[in-house]
Automatic annotation (TrEMBL):
Organism of provenance: Nocardioides potassii
Signal peptide: none
Protein name from the UniProt record: YbaK/aminoacyl-tRNA synthetase-associated domain-containing protein
Pfam families named in the record: tRNA_edit
Entries under Gene3D superfamilies matching the protein: YbaK/aminoacyl-tRNA synthetase-associated domain
Organism superkingdom: Bacteria
Domain YbaK/aminoacyl-tRNA synthetase-associated: start-end pairs: 51-173
InterPro entries assigned: YbaK/aa-tRNA-synt-asso_dom_sf, YbaK/aa-tRNA-synth-assoc-dom
Length: 186
């Protein structure tokens, strides 16, 4: 990007936005690494929040953020012929990931369930309640709810509970490995 082009960071009225690439101390290490290597990162903001309010419902209420502007990242897995298949599903917070039908078919597994939280935390290097679609293990699929792409600002985890990332919805489709899925959230 030329130096004379200024990027306007996404913001929400109740939170102070900082450039995420300039504040790696506010995100988990794998997220900082992913931001440093992603062209879209210049348009991503990070905001400090109370870690006790990291869960979506509490955060939405405390900071006045509509659920339609939040993206929940859930990790699911299944096994096919001894091969474990894992996907991160980013869905609009007013919906739930269609794990038992759509995601199961996309992963081509007989049974799909939520990945054990202790494993998700260990394998991502992120905190419970802060797992985000940036900086995930490269072998994992990243499924993005199509409805999020229309949101001007989407709040997602930062890898830690004490902050969140603000991402223009359209950029979620540009995350490394992202697969936009119609109707992922129901």
């Amino acid at each position: 990007m030329p130096h004379d082009v200024r990027v306007t960071l996404p913001s929400l009225p109740s939170l102070s936005s900082l450039p995420a690439v300039e504040h790696p101390e506010l995100v988990a290490p794998p997220v900082a690494t992913a931001l440093a290597g992603w062209a879209g990162a210049a348009e991503v903001a990070v905001v400090d929040i109370d870690p006790d309010l990291a869960d979506t419902a509490a955060m939405s209420e405390a900071y006045g953020i509509p659920l339609t502007a939040s993206g929940n990242c859930v990790i699911v897995s299944g096994v096919r012929a001894g091969d474990e298949r894992i996907a991160a599903c980013v869905v609009r917070a007013d919906t739930r990931a269609d794990v038992n039908t759509l995601v199961r078919k996309l992963l081509d597994v007989r049974k799909c369930s939520f990945h054990p939280m202790d494993r998700a935390v260990e394998e991502t290097g992120m905190e419970h309640g802060g797992i985000t679609p940036l900086g995930l293990p490269p072998a994992w699929r990243l499924l993005v709810h199509d409805a999020l792409l229309d949101e001007p600002v989407v709040v997602v985890g930062s890898g830690v509970r004490r902050s969140k990332l603000l991402v223009p919805g359209r950029l979620l489709a540009d995350l490394p490995g992202a697969e936009v899925v119609d109707g992922l959230g129901r």
